[in-house]
Amino acid sequence: MKTICFYFQLHQAMRLKRYRFFEIGTDHYYYDDYANEAQIRRLSDNCYLPANAMLLEMIKNSNGKFKVSFSLSGTILEQLEQHAPEVIDSFKALADTGSVEFLAETYAHSLASVYDETEFRLQVKKHSNKIETLFGVKPAVFRNTGLIYSDEIGQTINQMGYNGVITEGAKQVLGWKSPNYLYAHPYCPKLKIMPRNTKLSDDINFRFSDWSWDQFPLTADKYINWIAKTPDDEQLFTIAMGYDALGEINRRESGIFEFFKALPYQAMLNKIAFATPSQVVTERKTTDVMLSHEPISWVDDEKDLSAWTGNDLQNEALQKLYAESERVRLSKDRALLYDWLNLQNSDHFFYMCTKHFTSGKSAHHSPYDSPYEAFMNYMNVLSDFLQRVEEQFPSNIDNDELNPLLETINNQEKKIVMLEKQIKKLKKLTPPAS
Fold this sequence. Notes:
With 434 residues, this protein is α/β, with parallel strands linked by helices. The chain has 18 helices and 10 strands.
C-alpha cells in the first residue's frame, strides 16, 4: 500500500544583537531579545497555532488515520516555553492523539555531526531528554540539522540506538534510484534510511503560491493523483519541509490550509495511507543499501554542506568555535554553556554564505545586510565568548593537563549523585519526628 510520511521541521535561531568590537570583554549578553520574541510571536500566530489546530482536527476527523511527525530543535522549544507556551500545549494535544511522532535531532540545530562527534552525541541526548520531558515520549527516529547525512554520521546515529533516519533524496547519492523506497545503511543494516522526495516536498513548500508554476494551482486531488500514478512498487513517499510552509511562506489566503485539510479524503479515495517514521522503519523492509561517502543535505541545488562551509569566512568561524569544545565542556558555568549551544546554531554560518549574496541581497531570512556583516558580528561575539573560556581554562593548559581535570570533575559528580541517593535512602529509613 502506498504510504505518505509527512515530516515538519521547527527551528528558529537565537538572533544575535549588533555586537560591536569595543563591547568585547565588557558585554557578555549577545542576543536581540526584541527580535527573537517578535519572530516567535509572529510564527506562532501565523503558523504554529493555526497549523496545529488544523492537524488536530484532521487527525480527529480521520479517526487517527492521518499521521504526521515533527522535529523541534531545543532552541525553539526554549523560546516557545518563554514567549508562546500555548504552542507547547498545542503540541502536547497533538502528542496525546497517538498519531504524531517527535523526532530526535541536535539540541542546538548545530553542525556538530560534522565537526565534533562527542558534542554531537551530547546534544542528541540532551534533545531526546527535552522531548521526553515535554511530551512523554522518547524519539526513536533521527533527523539531523538540514538533513545532513553520510555513512559515517549514519554509523554514529546507529550507535546511539536509533533504528531510522530521514535524509535528503539527493541525486549524487541515489543516482537512478527512486527516493520512494526504504534503504539500509551499507554496514549498519539495522539503520533504515528514509530519503525525502524532493519534488513532492518542494511542490508544497516553495511552489504552492507560485503563480508562474505550470502546475498552479496545486489542489489536493492533483497532488494525491501524482502519488497514485507512480509505479506500483514505489510505496513510500517521505515529504518533508519547514513548518513555516503552513501560514508563513504560503500565507493563509493562498489556500494552504484548505489544501491540507483535503489530503486525507483524497488519499482515502486512492487507497493511500499515512504513517509516522517509526511505523515505516518498524513495519517495512529495505529494498537496497544507500551509500553516502560525503555528507549530503536538503539545502540548495548542490544538496551538500556548501551553504554552511562553502567559504573562508564560514570555515574560520567554525574552526575557531569547535577548537574550544573540550575546554567548554569542562565548564559548569550555566551562562557559558547556554551561549556555547546558541553559538553553534547552524543559522549563524548560513548567514555568512556568499553564494546567496546576489544583487545586494543576503541569505533568505538573514537579519544582516551582507554575509560579511554576519561574519563580523558573529566573530565579535565569539571573541568575547572565547575570552570567557580563556578565563576559566587558560590556553596554556594543554590537553594532557585538561584530561585529568575532566576526570576529577566527573568523579566528583558521580560521588555527589551517589551521596544524594544515600541521603534519600536514609530519609526513608528515618522515622518522622513525633
